[in-house]
């Protein structure tokens, strides 16, 4: 995968000091945007610490990235080795953000111990993207954002860790009321703030021509998403970053403005193991999303769910679930197949890109069949417990899934009714012919 990088950070028209920091580490294919806050002069210190610690942590743990790339080259994109390596990369970014949080808190505590109050209360947001093997891993804490620009169309990849976003996700405030909300800048997660930091990490496949854009709220707070796509989606990267910053300044420049853009100029050559693996994964993911209850989700919602749901790997003939067990959730087949066995014989086989047991998300019922791996099989599982947690955290997303599940169930019932009616007609004719 060939990449181009560019970034720009500007003080804006109102602030006297730039508390944002950006990093473009092209050798390890890592980009970062951090937005500092708090303290008398600590915002810029916090954002700088965030960028430095994350960069050092990724460099120190880069063997996880190499292992992921090697696993893709050597095996199936959904094999056990790839899944383990994938989780290691996601953990690398998560741990890097957690380490940055600890370092910011220590720096503030050390400064306070000297009797100074300059760094008391300092903190920072962070959003980072690590590029490897035709995909990006994106992690964030706070309200700095990541967008995918595909053919100039912006897709927001991150969900702000803010009071406002929580109210929107909870369906307690409409999009029409967002502009008038008085506490837009109140964060629910940030680096340097007492408490446990929980970074969100997602993974997405990329194609040639795609761009990934990271920015602070000084940009998207003044520039609409559609304008971000228009100004940053095509053309020379340097001109794009300059135009975006200039547009934000023209709109008032009320905050520091930072933007980083990475363009994928070419992916791996067709026919190579990495390219083939990426194509297989992308096609299976599309099939799952488009032919199941997930079709109702936005791209960002789907990526968040797809990246966070556990992947389970089974050998040929291994039992995935058994008759007599409580249904524990739905399964999406990523590799191999799930053979449904009833009374010792196969009644249906679910292949790659299919889903099964959706009703187990909402009801506790004893399974009447066995699910057995047919060949080396990998499934993504959305458990009932995780689904209920999703309902609490993202009720709007959960509502879309439930509506789609209702529609799918209704369609299945109609099909069953039609089959029964056809069978009734057939049996009536059969009986009639026998009566003659």
Structure explained in plain terms:
The protein has twelve helices and 16 strands. It is α+β, with helices and mostly antiparallel strands. The strands form three sheets. Strands 11, 12, 13, 14, 15 and 16 form a six-stranded antiparallel β-sheet that branches. The chain has a five-stranded antiparallel β-sheet with strand order 1-10-9-6-7. The protein has a five-stranded antiparallel β-sheet with strand order 2-3-4-5-8. The longest helix has 41 residues, at 395-435. The protein is elongated, with a radius of gyration of 25 Å. The chain starts with a strand and ends with a helix.
Summary of the model, kept short:
With 436 residues, this protein is an alpha+beta fold. It contains twelve helices and 16 strands.
Helix content: 40-55%
SSE ordering? EEEHHHEEEEHHEEHHHEHHEEEEEEHH
Oligomer: single chain
The radius of gyration is: 25 Å
What is the fold named in CATH at topology level of the largest domain? Phosphatase 2c, domain 1
Q: Largest sheet, described in full?
A: 6 strands, antiparallel
Structural class: alpha+beta
Q: What percent strand?
A: 25-35%
Low-pLDDT ranges: none
Number of helices: 12
CATH class of the largest domain: Alpha Beta
**Mean pLDDT, as a whole number?**
89
CATH homologous superfamily placement of the largest domain: PPM-type phosphatase domain
Global shape: elongated
Query: Which CATH architecture of the largest domain?
Result: 4-Layer Sandwich
Number of separate domains: 2
- End-to-end gap: 74 Å
Quick one: how many beta strands? Answer: 16
